[in-house]
Design goal:
With 282 residues, the chain is mainly α. The protein is built from twelve helices and no strands.
Length: 282
């Protein structure tokens, strides 16, 4: 039932690895773009939240969720390398023997670093605009961001971890459905539903936080906001995101597709038999 989808995603893994081998720099730049696409979407919803937080606080999370669907759509349709999506794609690549564990680890490290670099670059650029300063018409947005960033940096570890697990469960579910759906409109809609759910529920996404937390750090801030808090959140969110994408989506669909597991096992057995055959020389 799901074998074709697993095959399609594992072929994506092979293609991504081939492109990465051709040009690691090119891969890194594409990962930077993904960090920037997610970051600009965070800038959008933070602006919405700050604008509405005093006048209509009861609709803030709802409208932030409505508007965040652009993030993954940018990544999917513009083309970029997102670490959290790679948690699904490269895991299925390994399970189907299209990639090795060492390939997966290298891809995840370089993609994460590229996402971080792109997020930091965009955060610096956005802060230079003055739109998140504590002055004039931007004061409401500034205070909203400060409160939200302080909360995220001081979440209890288990709460942060499980919020991150659930965030990337939904992100990778969006990637999974996009691989199964044929029409562009349907793909956009289903990706949007996943992003809407994750933001409105308040889950934690490592790449989104790479950018979002910097909006609180790169302007004058209180003692509850710090670089230690930044790395605490991004680090633990990264671990939770890996579990959400690699286990809850890639792992569960792999376990739920016994015919695919049998096919890969048969291929492995055949390759082992060929390797074991004695070589004869004339």
């Amino acid at each position: 039932m799901y074998a074709k989808t697993i095959e399609a995603i594992s072929e994506q893994a092979a293609a991504k690895l081939a492109a990465q081998r051709r040009s690691l720099f090119g891969h890194f730049v594409r990962a930077m773009l993904a960090g920037m696409y997610v970051g600009v979407s965070i800038a959008l919803i933070f602006t919405i939240g700050g604008t509405l937080s005093s006048g209509a606080p009861f609709v803030v999370r709802l409208l932030m969720g409505v508007c965040f669907g652009c993030a993954l759509n940018y990544v999917v349709f513009a083309g970029a390398e997102l670490f959290t999506g790679a948690n699904l794609v490269l895991t299925l690549g390994v399970l189907t023997r299209q990639a090795r564990v060492s390939d997966l680890m290298q891809n995840w490290v370089w993609t994460w670093l590229g996402n971080l670099a792109g997020s930091m670059l965009l955060a610096w650029m956005v802060v230079q605009t003055g739109l998140f300063d504590n002055s004039g018409t931007t004061q409401g947005v500034y205070q909203f961001v400060q409160n939200l960033v302080a909360m995220k940096m001081n979440l209890p570890p288990m709460q942060l971890f499980w919020r991150a697990v659930l965030a990337n469960w939904l992100v990778c579910l969006g990637v999974w459905m996009a691989a199964r759906i044929q029409t562009e409109t349907a793909r956009i809609l289903m990706i949007w539903w996943c992003m809407f759910t994750f933001i409105t529920c308040g889950f934690e996404h490592s790449v989104a936080n790479m950018f979002g937390l910097l909006l609180g750090l790169l302007v004058p801030h209180g003692e509850n906001i710090s670089w230690a808090g930044y790395w605490y959140n991004v680090g633990l969110a990264t671990l939770g995101n890996i579990v959400g994408g690699a286990v809850l989506v890639a792992g569960f669909y792999w376990l739920g597709t016994p015919e695919m597991r049998a096919q890969v096992a048969a291929m492995k057995e055949k390759s082992d038999e060929v390797a074991a055959e004695p070589a004869f020389s004339n």
